[in-house]
Inverse folding.
């Protein structure tokens, strides 16, 4: 979650949604995102909505699971009142922050609340993010036994100097260990990587990729480092302590990642995500790009249900106050008009392998596709079959591609 | 202060013998307006309460820049103790761009006060105007101003002035426009030394127009000096150059507000209002006569002002084009020397090719357009008029690089030349000569003024002067040098047109006509600037400078390889969409040159040389 919330309409205190959100709901999956806004330390590059114990202003980590469970109950009431059909959760995702900073029992209790309120589909994907140094074999086993199916480790890099710049505290040696534990417990494994850290060379990046592939995870995410305003990293770059990551080097790194991952049997399915074999994509992640419904629980979490997007108050203390008062924690929301929803579908759909149906484009947009084919930015074959799928170059220029077809 | 003249002489019945017509010649900043203000106060035509600084300079820009653009004339009563006089002070523009207007103002006078800053001495501008005054047979009264300044050195500059115009240093008056010291004595000298006007009161009337200003309430106000005969209210008058007849709705004198009178007689200076709405119908230098009993001989010296410098003016926001057109139409009403015609630029859209008297004129017009009409403008690099002859003997007059003939072989090109006079402390002679030499100047001579100042004369192509010469001169001489120039014919030169190409497509706004020896430098300068200013595109963009088909300089902007926000921040799609909306807004401010998106600011920066590294 970014540090600043969008500007939009205020959300009502009861959190109630307009009846319009129920339209077409049967065709949309329903997922739950549970945000855990705690970290032991804050990494220099991170502007996610997370807090160390010093920053909590009286909010208590130990009280958090209870508040989140309240919101899950609120979610059910709101969705029911809006006339949405009963839908089991097809995906559940614990993100942060560091979800594994909470005792396993807390995560299990939160998952139980989702099950109690909505039910969980038999083939549901249930993921938690985890910091390699905050889990052990017993913890992972407990999660698996409670129904979790997947764990995503924040590996970021295999190179000590890169981890030091990122201020990640884990020991890269620990990765094979935690991956093994997860696999032993029966969890699918994803590794998260970051490239383009100041000082990181193409060879450093290659080493991280090779190391990650060697663990044979089911899924790998590789995100270009974004220098966010207000972070320590941004300040270090401003004063010249560190050099800003170069776009060209990041492009080289992306191309290298795609090359090595494809060669190792991983296939891209979203600009920053690769999976091994059918069915190992992160369905929760894809739901964001495919416009499904999800309820985001916790401080600063974002939700989308049937064309209404909203987001919660950011600080855990403010969140606690809202929950205590029996109010919705939503801070702001926006109701998208049909054209905005179409623009979003273009924006999101053109980044995934499944592609964007050309029927979503205006006549002008469809004409512009010819130029994209000529420039080698979209797959010609797919375009002829009526879908916009970006090429490797097109993925690197995805924002430019969207600008050209959106008119 | 109370006026010495207890009874003012009435217009239309004043004996020419008791009239004195004079102007003040001074360099910018030498205090002409302050002295004029002081005279208005001392003679009592403006009360202290109404006195505002630089009363005569009406336009905001004039007041802010401390220079006079449009001249005015004020009638002031004065007495030497025995006899009342009417003093007409004709304020002249001080800048070389307005030499023609100055010459007409001078022609309306019998004498001139040569006003020089006692701390700075004479400047090139002053010399030019002094020359014009002497050419018009005016009586010169040398005066040192600002003697109250601690840095004033009146003895030194009195000697300098005396050497210059002949006479004794002690004859040079010393005044302070600021405190008023010496100003009454100066007015006494005006009465004593300047000859009264002469003319034939019975001859058919002839009056010379020395200024013409547009007033939004009253239409054109024409300032005249009567030479022969008399002009009266309600009579029909005729402009001798156009034969147009108008009725005199009002006639009067400025003191300094317009005051209607029973007419104007021989030697008198005043204004006319005919209801005409466009200054072009009342041209400076023209002769006004009586329509029923017209004179047959117009007064000498009338010429149409010719534009010397051309530049394309374009609104930064293309939708402001109609506003710009209307603004130019309005400015034209008050500025007969402004020329313009519509022009289209591939890069800049719709605009106007404008002709100006000189660089200051260009600057003033642009500033007035921006200030009075709220426009944001881009001005293309100033250009001059070239006469191009092709090998098939065809002649082209080129005021815009885009008119430069292409395809056929050029036989020869001639360019306008000027005689430039630069006045500066002698320490800077070397630097100035170097600069002039680099601008294809030919040294004509040098002359020392006083002990430490030199006037350096060069003939130079005007095209070299219009391109940042004055800025260079000022910065290389710590601001001490002053420049004056006048046209002096044409010369043939090896001139070529340099085009700047983006992805093989010429960007018209950046084309320039330069000397062949400078073509490479211009090409390198522009290609390097543009490389810094144009953001990377999805493809490689070559930037080239070319003479015809021959490439003389080349740069290239490598293709942008990454333009994607990697993640979606836990489902914050709103943020992603807003980013897209922002990017789309940004795209709207781009101009397309072929397939290349060029930010509007890049054009402005490339043309002004105000280059900062692009952000990404």
């Amino acid at each position: 979650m970014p540090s600043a919330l969008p500007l939009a309409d205020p959300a009502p205190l009861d959190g109630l949604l307009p009846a319009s959100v129920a339209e077409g709901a049967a065709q949309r999956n329903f997922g739950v995102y549970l945000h855990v806004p705690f970290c032991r330390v804050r990494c220099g590059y991170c502007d996610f909505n997370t807090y160390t114990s010093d920053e909590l202003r009286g909010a208590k980590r130990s009280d958090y699971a209870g508040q989140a469970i309240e919101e899950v109950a609120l979610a059910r009431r709101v969705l029911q009142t809006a006339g949405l059909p009963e839908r089991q959760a097809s995906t559940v995702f614990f993100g942060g922050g560091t979800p594994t900073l909470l005792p396993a029992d807390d995560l299990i209790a939160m998952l139980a609340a989702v099950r109690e309120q909505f039910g969980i589909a038999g083939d549901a994907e249930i993921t938690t993010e985890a910091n390699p140094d905050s889990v052990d074999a017993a913890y992972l086993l407990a999660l698996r036994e409670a129904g979790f199916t997947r764990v995503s480790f924040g590996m970021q890099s295999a190179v000590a100097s890169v981890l030091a710049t990122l201020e990640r505290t884990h020991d890269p040696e620990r990765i094979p260990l935690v991956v093994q534990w997860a696999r032993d417990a029966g969890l699918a494994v994803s590794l998260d990587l970051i490239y383009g850290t100041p000082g990181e060379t193409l060879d450093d990046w290659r080493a991280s990729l090779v190391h990650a592939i060697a663990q044979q995870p089911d899924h790998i995410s590789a995100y270009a480092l974004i220098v966010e305003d207000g972070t320590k990293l941004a300040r270090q770059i401003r004063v010249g302590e560190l050099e800003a990551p170069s776009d060209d080097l990041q492009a080289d790194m992306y191309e290298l990642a795609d090359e090595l991952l494809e060669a190792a049997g991983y296939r891209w399915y979203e600009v920053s995500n690769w999976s091994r074999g059918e069915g190992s994509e992160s369905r929760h992640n894809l739901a964001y790009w495919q416009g499904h419904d999800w309820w985001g629980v916790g401080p600063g979490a974002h939700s989308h249900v049937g064309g209404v997007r909203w987001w919660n108050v950011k600080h855990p203390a403010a969140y606690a106050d809202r929950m205590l008062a029996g109010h919705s924690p939503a801070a702001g929301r926006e109701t998208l008009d049909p054209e905005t929803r179409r623009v979003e579908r273009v924006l999101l759909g053109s980044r995934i392998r499944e592609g964007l149906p050309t029927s979503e484009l205006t006549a002008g947009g469809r004409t512009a596709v010819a130029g994209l084919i000529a420039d080698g930015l979209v797959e010609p074959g797919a375009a002829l079959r009526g879908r916009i799928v970006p090429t490797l170059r097109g993925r690197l220029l995805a924002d430019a591609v969207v600008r050209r077809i959106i008119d | 202060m109370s006026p010495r003249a207890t009874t003012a002489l009435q217009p239309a019945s004043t004996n020419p013998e008791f009239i004195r017509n004079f102007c003040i010649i001074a360099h910018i900043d030498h205090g002409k307006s302050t002295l004029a203000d002081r005279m208005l106060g001392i003679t009592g035509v403006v009360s202290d309460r109404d006195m505002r600084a630089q009363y005569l300079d009406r336009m905001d820009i004039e007041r802010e820049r401390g220079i006079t653009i449009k001249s005015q004339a004020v009638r002031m009563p004065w007495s030497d103790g025995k006899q009342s006089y009417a003093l007409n002070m004709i304020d002249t523009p001080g800048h070389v761009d307005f030499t023609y207007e100055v010459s007409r103002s001078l022609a309306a006078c019998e004498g001139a006060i040569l006003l020089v800053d006692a701390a700075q001495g004479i400047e090139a501008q002053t010399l030019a105007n002094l020359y014009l005054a002497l050419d018009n047979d005016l009586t010169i009264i040398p005066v040192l101003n600002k003697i109250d300044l601690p840095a004033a050195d009146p003895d030194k500059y009195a000697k300098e002035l005396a050497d210059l115009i002949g006479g004794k240093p002690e004859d040079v008056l010393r005044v302070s426009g600021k405190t008023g010291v010496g100003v009454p004595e100066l007015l006494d000298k005006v009465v004593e030394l300047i000859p009264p006007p002469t003319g034939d009161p019975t001859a058919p009337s002839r009056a010379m127009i020395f200024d013409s200003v547009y007033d939004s309430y009253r239409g054109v106000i024409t300032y005249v000096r009567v030479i022969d005969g008399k002009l009266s209210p309600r009579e029909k008058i005729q402009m001798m150059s156009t034969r147009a007849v108008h009725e005199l709705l009002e006639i009067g004198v400025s003191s300094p507000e317009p005051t209607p009178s029973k007419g104007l007689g021989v030697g008198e200076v005043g204004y006319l209002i005919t209801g005409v709405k466009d200054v072009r119908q009342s041209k400076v230098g023209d002769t006004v006569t009586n329509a029923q009993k017209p004179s047959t001989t117009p007064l000498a010296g009338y010429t149409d002002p010719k534009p010397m410098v051309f530049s394309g003016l374009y609104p930064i926001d293309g939708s402001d084009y109609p506003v710009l057109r209307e603004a130019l139409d309005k400015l034209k009403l008050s500025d007969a020397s402004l020329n313009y015609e519509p022009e289209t630029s591939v890069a800049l859209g719709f605009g106007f090719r404008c002709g100006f008297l000189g660089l200051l004129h260009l600057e003033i017009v642009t500033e007035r357009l921006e200030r009075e009409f709220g426009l944001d403008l881009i001005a293309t690099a100033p250009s001059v008029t070239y006469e191009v002859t092709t090998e098939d003997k065809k002649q082209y007059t080129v005021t815009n690089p885009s008119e430069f003939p292409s395809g056929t072989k050029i036989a020869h090109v001639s360019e306008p030349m000027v005689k430039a006079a630069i006045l500066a402390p002698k320490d800077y002679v070397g630097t100035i000569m170097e600069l002039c030499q680099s601008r294809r100047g030919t040294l004509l001579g040098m002359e020392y003024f006083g002990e430490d100042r030199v006037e350096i004369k060069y003939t130079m192509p005007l095209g070299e002067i219009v391109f940042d010469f004055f800025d260079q001169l000022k910065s290389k001489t710590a601001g001490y040098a002053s420049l004056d120039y006048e046209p002096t014919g044409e010369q043939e030169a090896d001139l070529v047109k340099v085009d700047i190409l983006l992805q093989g497509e010429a960007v018209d706004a950046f084309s320039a006509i330069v000397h062949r020896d400078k073509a490479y430098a211009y090409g390198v300068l522009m290609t390097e600037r543009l490389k810094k200013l144009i953001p990377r595109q999805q493809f490689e963009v070559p930037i080239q400078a070319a003479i015809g088909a021959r490439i003389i300089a080349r740069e290239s902007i490598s293709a942008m390889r990454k333009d994607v926000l990697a993640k979606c921040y836990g489902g914050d799609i709103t943020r992603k969409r807003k980013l897209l909306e922002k990017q789309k807004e940004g795209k709207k401010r781009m101009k397309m040159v072929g397939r290349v998106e060029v930010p509007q600011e890049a054009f402005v920066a490339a043309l002004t040389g105000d280059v900062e590294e692009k952000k990404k």
In short: The interface with chain A takes residues 538-539, 558, 560-580, 583-584, 587, 616 of chain B (CB under 8 Å). The first strand of chain B starts at residue 19 and ends at 26. The radius of gyration of chain B is 28 Å. The CA atoms of residues 316 and 377 of chain B lie 5 Å apart.
